[in-house]
Specification:
Mean pLDDT: 90
Strand content: under 5%
Order of helices and strands: EEHHHHHHHHHHH
Shape: globular
Strand order of the largest sheet: 1-2
Oligomer: single chain
Low-confidence stretches: 296-300
Number of domains: 1
Largest sheet: 2 strands, antiparallel
Length: 302
């Protein structure tokens, strides 16, 4: 049976989003600098959102781990060790992603100063992230059913594999492209002198955040929200409208996150659009490959 969906939604949704992103890239290719000049205006609310807004995206990793855990456990005791191992890895990856995106901000909030503070604030920050990841996994375990083991495993695999691979691709592209961020350019007397279009790639192997604008890593992480319709299909009390609500929320959330990245002078419009487009295509590809072998009655995600 051919699956006519992508990430649990009609394929047309995928193509429409991709078309809008391509249009955004075309507009940004000619107006990135002027768009950033118009929209940039750092605010306290915007600063908080850019530091912690992506936590919702990270929450889907332990949810994916729980899906695989339940799917493997349903297959029998033979898979118990593997089930626990994958669940543990999903929690590890969640904490790792937390630390990579928001770790330094929480450490700072706890009063940690490198080479000056005691180790206690650092430990508290780590324990906070671990507690959040475990709490999300516990809640997910309570609300996700175990009706179709193959479907659960497939959904979890799509989220974990596509999520991790897209982050690796994003980090590699940042080094290959090495585009100066707008927040760096505005510190210069003549911002246009060092402005670089996204296609003017100059490989840069040094880890300096001010030169890693393209594509947006925050948007790579935010794009995982497009997997929400998959999660709604395996809830114990699922409703048909849940997946459409989840998709609508994902679209609105990604728009808000994208605006925030430009508003806080961290990225250009093309950085934001490429971050979503590349990641969305990776998710669609992984989804297609994984679900091509799923034989579960719930495969069509109806």
């Amino acid at each position: 049976m051919t699956d006519k969906k992508i990430l649990g939604m009609p394929r047309m949704c995928f193509f429409i989003v991709c078309a809008v992103l391509v249009i955004g890239i075309a507009i940004g290719s000619f107006g990135d600098l002027s768009i950033s000049e118009t929209l940039t205006n750092k605010t306290d609310i915007g600063d908080f959102f850019q530091h912690y807004g992506n936590l919702l995206s990270h929450f889907l990793y332990p949810v994916a781990g729980v899906c695989i855990f339940k799917g493997l456990r349903k297959k029998g005791k033979t898979y118990n060790v593997l089930a626990w191992g994958i669940l543990g890895f999903s929690l590890y990856w969640t904490v790792y992603s937390f630390l990579d995106t928001s770790g330094k901000h929480l450490r700072k909030a706890y009063g940690y100063i490198a080479a000056e503070s005691s180790v206690l604030p650092l430990i508290l920050a780590y324990l906070t992230w671990i507690a959040i990841a475990v709490a999300v996994a516990f809640i997910a375990y309570q609300i996700i059913d175990d009706e179709h083991s193959e479907l659960l495993i497939a959904i979890g695999a799509v989220i974990l594999i596509a999520g991790m691979f897209s982050e690796f691709v994003n980090e590699w592209l940042k080094l290959v492209g090495c585009r100066p961020r707008y927040r760096y350019l505005i510190t210069l007397d003549d911002p246009k002198s060092e402005y670089r279009n996204w296609w003017e790639m100059v490989p840069y192997l040094k880890d300096e955040s001010d030169f890693r604008s393209w594509p947006s890593g925050h948007m790579t992480k935010a794009t995982i929200m497009f997997a929400l319709p998959l999660i709604t299909s395996v809830l114990k009390n699922k409703k048909e409208w849940f997946k459409y609500a989840g998709y609508a929320f994902a679209v609105l959330w990604i728009i808000l996150m994208g605006y925030n990245r430009i508003h806080m002078n961290a990225h250009f419009l093309t950085d934001v659009c490429f971050g979503v487009l590349i990641t969305y295509c990776i998710y669609a590809l992984v989804y297609t490959l994984v679900f091509s072998s799923v034989k579960s009655p719930g495969r069509s995600l109806k």
